[in-house]
Amino acid sequence: MKALILVGGFGTRLRPLTLSVPKPLVDFANKPMILHQIEALKAIGVTEVVLAINYQPEVMLNFLKDFEEKLGIRITCSQETEPLGTAGPLALARDKLADGSGEPFFVLNSDVISEYPLKEMIEFHKSHGGEASIMVTKVDEPSKYGVVVLEEATGQVERFVEKPKLFVGNKINAGIYLLNPSVLDRIELRPTSIEKEVFPKIAAEKMLYAMVLPGFWMDIGQPRDYITGLRLYLDSLRKKDASKLASGTHIVGNVLVHESAKIGEGCLIGPDVAIGPGCVVEAGVRLSRCTVMRGVRIKKHACISSSIIGWHSTVGQWARVENMTILGEDVHVCDEIYSNGGVVLPHKEIKSSILKPEIVM
Amino acid sequence: MMGSSEEKVVAVIMVGGPTKGTRFRPLSFNIPKPLFPLAGQPMVHHPISACKRIPNLAQIYLIGFYEEREFALFVSSISNELKVPVRYLKEEKPHGSAGGLYNFRDLIMEDSPSHIFLLNCDVCCSFPLPDMLEAHRRYGGMGTILVIKVPPESANQFGELVADPVTNELLHYTEKPETFVSDHINCGVYVFTPDVFAAIQGVSTQRKDRANLRRVSSFEALQLPNRSLPTDFVRLDQDILSPLAGKKQLYTYETMDFWEQIKTPGMSLRCSALYLAQFRFTSPHILATGDGIKSATITGDVYIHPSAKVHPTAKIGPNVSISANARIGAGVRLVNCIILDDVEIKENAVVIHAIVGWKSMIGRWSRVQAEGDYNAKLGVTILGESVSVEDEVVVINSIVLPNKTLNLSVQEEIIL
Predict the structure, then answer these.
(1) Over residues B8-35, mean pLDDT
(2) CB proximity under 8 Å: B 75-104 to A
(3) What is the DSSP letter of A18?
(4) Which of A36-45, B2-11, B146-155 has the lowest mean pLDDT?
(5) Residue A12: closest C-alpha in chain B
(6) What does the pLDDT average to over B174-195?
(7) How far apart are CA B73 and CA B60, in angstroms?
(8) Which residue has the higher pLDDT, A334 or B214?
(9) Which parts of chain A register pLDDT below 50?
(10) Mind listing the domains of chain B with CATH numbers?
(11) What residue stretches are annotated with the Mannose-1-phosphate guanyltransferase C-terminal domain (chain B) (predicted)?
C-alpha cells in the first residue's frame, strides 16, 4: 500500500526552529515530526511513502536514507518546482501512487499529530464503497477552519464551507485522507486545492465520506499549538503505553525522557515535558509544559515553563524561561536571566533579560 | 615618490565568517556579508578596487571563515574584471585579527613584498591607500594606521588613539574604553612592513612562555587574565597596537573623508549611499540619468544594473541602487533604498528607506517604508528573500524574514 505526505513549504510559522531544519524534521516528543506519521503508516502495512516537498530536498533525503533502513519502508521524494497547493502534488506523484493494483492510498498532512487510526479508516473506506474518505475532527471554534458538513448516520459529505460566519457544523478537515486511484484522474498538474476544487466535486457525486477521528488532533505548525499538542500526545501515550513515560518522585504528570538524557538531584519535571537525546538537566531544575531538544543543557536551579528549547542550547543557572519562549538552535541564555516570551534566532547569546515577548535576531 | 620596481605590495582583506555576524540578519541568511551589494557592487569589491590603485600591487588575499565555495565565483570573476590576482584563504580556526595574518605569512611573503596592507572588509571609506603608503614610507616605522576624527560621544564604540601632532607617531591606543580617551579612532585600515610578523610572533612566544610557567603553578594560572587564549591567538588591537604605542614603531595617517562600519543592514543602506556619492566624483558614468521622457526620472545618486527594467514613468532617487533583472513598474517611487536581484515592483508602489530582498514582489499601490534611522533596530525596513507584499499593503519600520507573504499591513514588527 502507498501513502503521500504533504510536506510543502518553508515552515515559517515554526521559526526559529525551522531556520535550522526543514519542518518535518523538527522534533516532536523526541522524534522528528514526520517520523510519527511514517511509523503509523508502516504499522498498517504501507510499503512506500512519497514525500511531496518543495524545499531543501537534500536535507530531507539524507535523513530519509537513515530511516529507510531502520524502518524497512521505502521513502521517496516528489519535488515541486512551483508550489502546487494541496492537490497538485498528488498529480505530480501519480506514477508512484497508482501502481495498477487499484488499492487506495493515504494522503497525510505533515503538520498534523493524532492517534492515526488508519486501520479503522481502511475498514470505513471499504464499508461505504465510495471514492474517497477523509478524517474530520471536532473543534470548539470551527469558523477558524474549513468546516465539513456531513450526514451523521453514514458520514456522507454534503459540502465544505471555508471559515463559516454562521454555525454550520463543528467538524473540520483533519488532513488525513484515503483515496481510490481514480481520484488522481480528477487532479491536473497545476496549483490546486483539494478542499476547494477536488473534494467538492466528489462530494457532489455522493462519493466522499468522512470519519470522525477518535482521540486527539492537533496542527502543530506553530509554537503555541506545538506545546498544546505535546500535552495531548503524552495524555494519549499514558493510555496506550504508560511504560514509555518517566516515573519517579521527581516526575509530575506525563513526562517523556530519552534514555540518553541525564537528570540531576532535586529536580521537579512535569507535567507535559519532553526531554530529548543527550540532554543534561542539572540539579534543582523545574521544568513544566516544555520541550527540551537534543543536546540541550539546563543548568542548576533554572526554571522553564511553556517553552521550547532548541537543539544544543543552554539555559543558565537560576534562569527563568517562560510564556512561549522559543530558543532556536545553539542559543545560550546566561545565568540568572529572565525570558518572558523571547523568540530567539539560532546562535545567539542572551545576556540581558527579555521582559516582554520579543524576537531576538 | 614611488618605490623601486622591486618593491611589491600585498593587500590582505579580513572578511570574517558566518557565525560571528548575527547583526547582519536577515540579509546574512542568504549571502555572506562581504558579498552584499553596496552601490551595485559586493561590499568587498570596494576595498579591492581601492587596492588596485596601489602602485606595484602584486596580490590581494581575502582571509575569512566562510567556506571556500562561497567565495569561489566572486574571486575568479573579480580577478578577471580588475586584472589583479585575488585569492580567498579560509582560516581553519580563529587566530585573532593579527594571528590570522601571521597564519598565512608564507603565502603573503611569497612575492617578497616590501609592504602589506591589512583592511577590514566591513569598513566603508575612501581608502586613500596610495597616500597612506607614501606617508608610511616617510615615517619609516613598522606600521601606519588610518585614523579619523569622530564626535566624542561615539568614539568609545571603537579603538581610541592619541597621536603626536607633529610626527604622527601613535602614542597611545585603547580599545573601546569606558572613559573618554580621544576623539580619534582606528579605521581598521593598516599598512605594515614585514617586521609585523616578528612582532606577532613575539606575542605568541611570550604567551607560550607564560603557559609554560602555568604548568609550574596551577594557582598562578587562575590569576592570569589571558589564561583562556591559545598561544597562537593574537589580536591586533590589544596585543600589537596597544603595547607598541609610544615606541616609535607605529604611526597614524588621518583621513578627512567619510568613514563608517557596516555592521547592520541599516548601515549597509547608509554606506551604499556614501559609495554612490563617491561614484559621482570618481566614475559618474556608472550612475543613472533620466528625465522621465525616454527613461525614468532620476534624482540624486542612483545606480541601475544594465539588465534591470525601469518604466519611464517611475521616479527613482536619491540614493537608490537597483540590482540585476529587477523590474520596476509604471509610476513607482523609490527613495533611499536597495532593490536586490530579480525583484518585481508593481505599478504605483512606493519604497522609502528600505532594502528589498532578492526575488521579492511589491504589489500595486503598496508602500514599504521606514523612518530611515540607520542605527535603530527597525529604522530601515528589510524584506528578506522572496517576500511578497500584496497590493495596497503598507509595511512600516519592519523586518520580514524570507519566504513570507504579507496580505495585511504591519508596523514596527519583526515577522519570522
Answers:
(1) 90
(2) none
(3) G
(4) B2-11
(5) B416
(6) 91
(7) 16
(8) A334
(9) none
(10) 9-263 (3.90.550.10), 285-415 (2.160.10.10)
(11) 298-415
- pLDDT given for residue B231 in this prediction: 77
Chain B neighbors of A345, CB-CB under 8 A: 22, 25
Q: Does the N-terminal peptide bond of residue A16 adopt cis geometry, omega within 30 degrees of 0?
A: yes
CB B249 within 8 A of CB B142: yes
* B330–chain A Cβ distance below 8 A for any pair: no
Query: Among the residues of chain A, which ranges form H helices?
Result: 33-43, 57-71, 88-92, 94-97, 118-128, 199-204, 223-241
Determine the Cα–Cα distance for residues B38 and B320; give it in Å rounded to an integer. Answer: 10
ipTM of the complex in this document: 0.80
- Measured CA to CA in angstroms, residue B147 lies from B16, B44, B183, B265 at distances of 21, 20, 10, 24
pLDDT digits (tens, 9 = 90+) for B321-380: 999 999 999 999 999 999 999 999 999 999 999 999 999 999 999 999 999 999 899 999
Cβ neighbours of residue B341 closer than 8 Å, sequence gap 6 or more: B323, B324, B325, B326, B358, B359
Q: Closest Cα to residue A213, out of A143, A128, A345, A121?
A: A121
pTM of the model: 0.86
Band of residue B1 on the pLDDT scale cut at 50, 70, 90: very low
> What's the burial of B30, exposed, middle or buried (CB within 10 Å: 0-12/13-18/19+)?
middle
Closest CA in chain B for residue A360? B414
- For residue B18, the 8-state DSSP code is T
Give me the amino acid identity at A240: K
Q: Which backbone phi and psi does B232 adopt, to 5 degrees?
A: -95, 15
| Nearest-angstrom CA–CA distance, A138 and A116 | 15
Task: Give the CA distances from residue A127 to residues A110, A121, A136, A209, in Å, rounded to whole numbers and listed in that order.
Answer: 27, 10, 17, 11
High-pLDDT (> 90) share of chain B, %: 79
Q: CA A151: distance to chain centroid?
A: 29
Give me the pLDDT at residue B217, please: 54
B26 CB neighbours in chain A (<8 A) are: 361
User: Looking at CA atoms only, how far is residue A11 from chain B in angstroms?
Assistant: 9
pLDDT at B19 over 80: no
Nearest CA in chain B to A345: B22
Please provide the distance, in angstroms rounded to a whole number, between the alpha carbons at the two ends of chain B: 56
Intra-chain end-to-end CA distance of chain A, in Å: 45
* The residue type at A7: V
Smallest Cα distance from A10 to chain B, Å: 7
pLDDT of residue B5: 54
pLDDT band with cut points at 50, 70 and 90 for residue B304: very high
CA distance A357 to chain B (A): 12
Residue A51: its pLDDT value, please? 92
For chain B, what is the mean pLDDT? Answer: 91
Q: Which residue ranges form the domains of chain A, and what is each CATH number?
A: 2-219 (3.90.550.10), 227-359 (2.160.10.10)
Q: Is B401 in the A-facing interface, judged by CB distances under 8 Å?
A: yes
Do B403 and A9 count as a contact with CB atoms less than 8 A apart? yes
Answer whether the bond into residue B318 is a cis peptide, omega within 30°. yes
Residue B361 amino acid letter: M
